[in-house]
Amino acid sequence: MNSPICAAQESVPVEPFLIKRPERQTIPLVFASPHSGQRYPDQLLLDTRMDSLALRRSEDSFVDELFAAAPAHGAPLIAASFARVWCDVNREAWELDPAMFTEPLPPWVNSASPRVGAGLGTLARIVTGGEQIYRRKLSFAEAEARIRACWEPYHAALAALLAETRARFGFCLLIDCHSMPGHPAHLANPPHFVLGDAHGTACTPRAARLVEETLMGLGYKVRRNDPYAGGFVTRYYGRPREATHALQIEVARTLYMDETRIERLPGFGPLRRDMTSLIESLTRVDWDFLSPGQ
Asked: What distances in angstroms separate CA 251 from CA 33, 63, 87, 132, 135, one per listed residue?
């Protein structure tokens, strides 16, 4: 049975994100799933030239479920509820493609980034695979409405979680959770996970190594920064000198889902158990090394 889109009746989701908190935060970690949202507003469904499954190709389906054990082990989890193709919070707020709009964009908009050039700005022009999303051009007012209603609240909430964690422990580690389709560079020896730390600038190497070694101990093939070194979230929030570290985790979709039908495969349960084991292992770490003075 095909997995249908969850259409929202409003122009933007009423609740742009969901935060699941532990009874008491016991580890200096925050987990985030910015691309697993399944709410597709009616306006988007009217405007798109795609069928519902094609529209979901950019979605990190079920990633929030894979890491759902985080709150039970002492760490909060934030997940966007809106679809990535509606508004991508792993971009700058105003990375917009001028070709998508009916009028010239304000001069302060970033219209020259590599993400915009690839069609994957804050409002995406294409889905993963390269198909065009829209049958019409948008107004800048529409983009602004999405950014104000989705991007800004999500980042305000994420920043608040990180600030709370730093205040409690003196430092924090953000683990930004994603999924990845097959990549041409990996055809011969595809990894199960890619860890992105912006080539060593977004988190201390020791934290990345801990996650890498734990995943390898569970039997997975792991790569660093190839081809995913971390998006906006990793690079923006990863400031080790300010006691905030960020590590992006990309999980191979082939491990747990049918990418054509957007359905969980039998491997979903074992993978979720392994992600719970990963989280459990992180509760036993002495995280003092995240302190800038260490």
From this structure: 12, 8, 21, 25, 32
For residue 216, give the nearest of 189, 193, 187, 183 by alpha carbon.
Answer: 193
| Pairing, β 29-33 against β 193-196 | unpaired
Domain ranges of the chain: 6-83+141-290
The closest of 280, 284, 261 to 272, measured between CA atoms, is 280
pLDDT tens for the chain, 294 residues long, are 344 454 443 444 468 999 999 999 999 999 999 999 999 999 999 999 898 889 998 999 999 999 999 999 999 999 999 999 999 999 999 999 999 999 999 999 999 999 999 999 999 999 988 899 999 999 999 999 999 999 999 999 999 999 999 999 999 999 999 999 976 666 678 999 999 999 999 999 999 999 999 999 999 999 999 999 999 999 999 999 999 999 999 999 999 999 999 999 999 999 999 999 999 999 999 999 999 876
Please state, in angstroms and rounded to a whole number, the distance separating the CA atoms of residues 25 and 216. 27
Alpha carbon distances (Å) from 118 to 62, 115, 124, 169, 259: 25, 5, 9, 39, 21
* CATH, domain range 6-83+141-290: 3.40.630.40
Tokens encoding 200: 């060593």
Q: How far is Cα 58 from Cα 82, in angstroms, rounded to an integer?
A: 12
Cβ partners under 8 Å of residue 27, min gap 6: 73, 74, 75, 282, 283, 285, 287
